[in-house]
Amino acid sequence: MVMATSAQPLTEVEIELVDLCVRIAQFLGLPKSLGEIYGAVFIASKPISMEEIIERHGISKGSASQGLRALRTIGAVRTQYVPNDRRDHYVAETGLGQLVAGIMRNRYEPGIEDFGVRVQSLQYLQGKVGKDEQHLLQRIQKLNHWQEQAQQIVPTLRQVLQGEGP
Amino acid sequence: MVMATSAQPLTEVEIELVDLCVRIAQFLGLPKSLGEIYGAVFIASKPISMEEIIERHGISKGSASQGLRALRTIGAVRTQYVPNDRRDHYVAETGLGQLVAGIMRNRYEPGIEDFGVRVQSLQYLQGKVGKDEQHLLQRIQKLNHWQEQAQQIVPTLRQVLQGEGP
DNA sequence: CGAATAGTTCATTTTTTCTTGAACTAAATG
DNA sequence: CATTTAGTTCAAGAAAAAATGAACTATTCG
Lengths: 166, 166
Description:
The structure is a homodimer of 166-residue chains. Chain A is mostly helical. Chain A has helices spanning 12-27, 32-42, 50-57, 61-73, 96-125, 135-162, and strands at 48-49, 77-80, 89-92. In chain A, strands 1-3-2 form a 3-stranded antiparallel β-sheet. In chain A, helix 1 (12-27) crosses helix 2 (32-42) and helix 2 (32-42) crosses helix 4 (61-73). The interface between A and B is large, with 50 and 51 residues. The structure holds a DNA duplex (30 and 30 nucleotides).
């Protein structure tokens, strides 16, 4: 690992803010590097390039490239045009609703859908329940009920997080 | 790895139900083995012992012991007395509200609290924000706002999941 | 008691996930 | 159009997380 060459070291406050971003990422089950990269963009006073992120935060080129793509995909950062500079520059989206929506969409909803499909097809399997395993029918019902409740959660979350602030 | 010695193999339906439990566990960021073990208890027609779980599902003793403890801690299973049997026997809790509450309490709420503490202490750091980093004050505000919203989520979830069914 | 059984612990191994960096493509620059 | 620069890809390495099983403790049974 090579140290940053010439970038300003992070100030105490910056380190703390990036650290908080890292912890949020980990909390959400995302890799630490995504938190770092988001943090880098989050604390920047103006649109920041990948190179600056790499140098100032000591992240590898590969991680930075992949991480920025992931963050774009979930809508946590977006690119912004900067005149006279060939490089892409990034700014952070900071609406919690938007952030969580993006994470849900990419990381959680596919799982919820799969679950729904699997539970649906359980109905078919009911025929294959043997006489000696009638108690499983109840369990299948239970899973159905779970699935119904799970589907309510996403819209509810959306509502809680709609209220954006300053 | 040693195969189960003499237990009934799982039926097609049982395999599917356990598999669903495994996927739910993974979705929630819990290790696969917790899903398997919960699944084993979930599909059992009567209180099941650790030994039966180990034999029928091919889980190691260590995993089974630790996994059952974890499941007890989050309130996903509980022990039930069985006459004339020295071993502990387990039954599954199947209320989604209870399950999610347990998982939240153990896996997520500590993180939310830590985050709250850290954000609190940011207020103190505001003094250390240099003249050249005034833009960070906004970011600190943003984190505050996130924290307030995050605190609303737990009670809201609780409410959605209260409605228990059959 | 002493043997047998139930259950726990934890160092080691296995598996999975994340990160790196060198080789590559693509695009701009002079 | 050759060179520099920006950005991507992916195989290999590093790190983290999970699973195993042998050694242990605790309990019950005869």
